[in-house]
Structure formats: structure tokens, C-alpha cells
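Notes for week 9. Today we move from apo structures to complexes. The key idea is that a small molecule is not decoration. When we ask for a structure prediction with zinc ion present, the ligand SMILES becomes part of the input, just like the chain. The input block below holds both the sequence and the ligand string. Read it once before you look at the output, and try to guess where the molecule might sit.
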Amino acid sequence: MTHTHKVKTEDGPYPFRGTVNPHNPTPVAHGGSNWTYRCACGASKQVNHNGGEKEHGPWGLTPASFARTTHYTTTGSVRGSCGHKHRSRELARACIARDHRGCEAQGGYSDRRVVKVTHFLEK
Ligand SMILES: [Zn+2]
Ligand SMILES: [Zn+2]
């Protein structure tokens, strides 16, 4: 099935969040805004705008392939990081509570706090 994608809708602007074409970036188009161009078939591509400059990502680069992974970890200047990747803030809080109980047993306390970590996965 051959089909040439055509831009039907332009969604944006979204905040610039990095190159949309890691293999052939257009740095002059960076630092402005990010748009999602969609074809009637449902495919989309990411386009960065800055002034008159544009950087086009490849068609088919869906939000899924630009997946964001988020996890929560805990860290404190005294206790350091727990080194876990917790799936939710609640689980990270539970980890601190466990650490806190362990510290209390030794007469101290845990200074860890929850930190949200987000990675953009560029394929
Ligand atoms: Zn199409
Ligand atoms: Zn933890």
C-alpha cells in the first residue's frame, strides 16, 4: 500500500523539547515551538518551528515512539538515593516511610524526598 502522507492538521504550538530528527537535525529550528502535523490516515510527524526555520521529523513518528518514561526515586543529602525506580509517587513515599522506620530504629530520620524522573526516548 503506497500512500503519500499529506499534512491535514497542525497541532501546536507545544514547548520545544528537543530535536525531532536526531539523525539529521536542523539546529536553527530549535528552541522555538514543537508542532504535530497529522495526515488524514492518522500518521503524524513532529515539526519544530523557530522563526521561519522548520525541522521535520519523519512521518510515523508517533507520540508512542517518542515515549516518555516517568519514574519516581527518592534522594536525600544525608541518606542518598534509594536507587529504585518506583512506578508511582505513592510507592516512592512508601519507600521513604520504610527508610524512615529503619533510621528511627537507629535514632535518626530519613531526609529523602520524592524526585520525579522523566526520560524522553528518541528512537
Ligand atoms: Zn497518510
Ligand atoms: Zn526506593
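The first helix runs from residue 89 to 105.
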